[in-house]
Design brief:
Length: 73
């Protein structure tokens, strides 16, 4: 009986860890979509000749944030 309860508890702990990982990945995906939406918002506020600069700025922002998040955490 004790062995069965331990295996069930181990399964629950594994499921909790996997669910946390899925939630973090989903949240990161939503943040990337938010960055794309913010880039479109900024592009609508500037002249068309500056659109490429805005996209480059947002790409640099995402890249630097990703690198800093992985290094510092």
């Amino acid at each position: 009986m004790s062995n069965t309860l331990e295996s069930v508890q181990l399964g629950i702990d594994t499921l909790k860890g996997e669910t946390d990982t899925i939630w973090i990945m989903f949240s990161a995906f939503l943040v990337m979509l938010m960055q794309a939406g913010f880039a479109m918002l900024e592009m609508g506020a500037v002249r068309s000749k500056n659109a490429q600069n805005i996209l480059a700025k947002n790409l640099l922002d995402v890249t630097m944030a990703t690198v800093i998040w992985f290094t510092i955490g």
